[in-house]
TrEMBL record:
It comes from Methylobacterium oxalidis. This is Helix-hairpin-helix DNA-binding motif class 1 domain-containing protein. It holds the Pfam family HHH_3. SUPFAM superfamilies: PsbU/PolX domain-like. Gene3D superfamilies: Photosystem II 12 kDa extrinsic protein (1.10.150.320).
Length: 72
């Protein structure tokens, strides 16, 4: 049976969320609070580490989501 909220479970599904294409809802569901709008405002990204290097997120928030994100 398929889950109705697969977008909210990126780490569980084994796929990473692309920072350059993910929706606000997908980004907010990563577990670091309401970060979606801020991430989208600073697009595009060359690497996930850009979130910290460009001061989009605090290092502590980045550590929470880093295994669930990617840049394609």
């Amino acid at each position: 049976m398929a889950s109705a909220s697969t977008a909210a479970e990126p780490a569980a599904s084994g796929t990473s969320i692309d920072l350059n294409t993910a929706s606000v809802e997908e980004l907010n569901a990563l577990g670091a609070g309401m970060i979606g709008r801020r991430i989208i405002a600073f697009r595009p990204y060359a690497s996930p580490e850009d979130l910290v290097n460009r001061r989009v997120l605090k290092r502590s928030d980045f550590e929470v989501i880093k295994t669930a994100i990617t840049v394609r």
